[in-house]
Automatic annotation (TrEMBL):
The keyword Signal applies. Residues 1-17 form the signal peptide. SUPFAM superfamilies: EF-hand, FKBP-like. Transmembrane segments: none annotated. It is an enzyme of class 5 (isomerase). PPIases accelerate the folding of proteins during protein synthesis. It is found in: Endoplasmic reticulum. Residues 540-568 have a biased composition (Basic and acidic residues). Residues 527-562 form the EF-hand domain. The lineage of its organism: Eukaryota, Metazoa, Chordata, Craniata, Vertebrata. InterPro entries: EF-hand-dom_pair (IPR011992), EF_Hand_1_Ca_BS (IPR018247), EF_hand_dom (IPR002048), FKBP-like_isomerase (IPR051989), PPIase_dom_sf (IPR046357), PPIase_FKBP_dom (IPR001179). It comes from the Eukaryota. It catalyses: [protein]-peptidylproline (omega=180) = [protein]-peptidylproline (omega=0). This is peptidylprolyl isomerase.
Amino acid sequence: MDLILFWFLLFLDASRVIVTRSSGVLVDVVVDRYDVPKVCPREVQTEDFVRYHFNGTFYADGKKFDSSHDRSRAFVSQVGLGKLITGMDRGLQGMCVNERRRITVPPHLAYGSIGTGGVIPPDAVLVYDVLLLDIWNAEDKVEIRTISKPAICNRTTAASDFIRYHYNGTLLSGEAFDSSYSRNATYDTYLGQGDLIKGLDEGLLGMCVGERRVLIVPPFLAYGENGYGTLVPPQASLVFEVLLVDVFNPKDDLIVEVKEVPEGCTRRTKARDYIRYHYNGTFQDGSAFDSSYQRNSTYNTYIGMGYVIKGMDKALQGLCAGEKRRIIIPPHLAYGEGGVGDFIPGSAVLVFDIHVIDFHNPKDPVQIKVTHRPQDCNVTSEADDYIQYSYNCSLMDGTLLYSSDQYDSSSTTTLGANKVIVGLEEGLSGMCVGERREVVIPPHWGHGENGAGEVPGSAVLFFELELLELQKGVPEGYMFVWLGDGPDPLFPAMDLNSDKEVPQEEFSSFIMTEISQGRGRLRPGVDAHSIIKDMFNNQDRNKDGKITEDELTLKDDEETKQARRDEL
């Protein structure tokens, strides 16, 4: 069998064979595609540039005459324009990245009967074992493949924007050269300002936060002939799998989206108000960085006084209690380029979903709204009165804290006795039986910064009140008062049987008669028997179980003398 027929049969079953048989002469290259990728998005065509590794051997003895592997530098050339030997120009056609071929080149398509430079002898059949690493064309543009995109995209990247993105960077062959994920930090840069390679500056335009793209960048829009250190070889196409995390523009202001406003909002926040609000804090990609709900505690602060970041200080003005908003704050109004440790990265846009619980001003008074007042309202509550009332106590967002309905009986108190918070004392004053009120009590009239029980610190309280019963009281320090002028002289009136002495039973009968006839009043809210007993004991100076006129006079004289000393 002649040599040419042998080669024809040997390569007949190869993946691709370019061979003809003429009388005893190999007239074309022989291509053995012995390793072809399953996916081949692009094949080499005339005028394409290629970057490949090869081992070159002689067919006759297998001896190596050249190798790009030995130089640790892939070979770069253009196909089909005579920059390669003709056999390679033909043998590389239709090749895929990561494909391996064995290309056998006859002498007339290699270095002919002359050879070259003492390396290739005349009439040598050459065998090139090739691994294709890269393909590009001078007409190529950045190739953009969108992997995923959020359903809602309110903003896309534009030139002069500042962006934060994650990426995996590989060569076209799949070999990784860099990854932001391995550093656990986004790549942060301005877009369209020349801070990136041209291909990225172009490929990152028009992206939404949360969008994923694959960008294929030809070498002349990447690092070109020089490459990039040891990471990116010269003339390498680059593949970036990109996730856009954040975008803003240095000219951006706050973005405020009103989600919910309660009906009947009559007051809005302003500078120097104190506010309590809940929030969820996220980045633009939706990942959370903080939440007051997780701590089960509102965030409390003054507004417009520099206690919070500038953007939040501005955004917290003009809100109603109960209002819900989404606030998007660019980094120059948040934590800037420095961020906050590992908590908030530098140049991060912050998204706050807030719910205003309540707010107040340190100068706020107690607010009283009468919702029902009986027509017959001649007697109203005042200091020292003993009252019975029902109530509901809530936060301003409607959260019920306490209610008299939770107990077996209504609440009672003596006004002016410091038995309830100051704001409630004021809200209960001036009421007539059957009157109903709504009372708003700021914390400085309530439980202050520390709160109490179920009442959070600095909470504004909302009370719904109804006065159920009113017993007029007596001044502080007194157990009994005359309603008008008392008997004069007093002792004969007390001495019911005129025996010149008044035991406790007689004294008690006298007092109760005066009360029943509307001439006197005991301190309300205290057991009458106990009060009368205390009154009797105060007058029974010698503790013999009865009061005489001398004892009563002596007590009067002492009180008069004490009053005179007080005046002095």
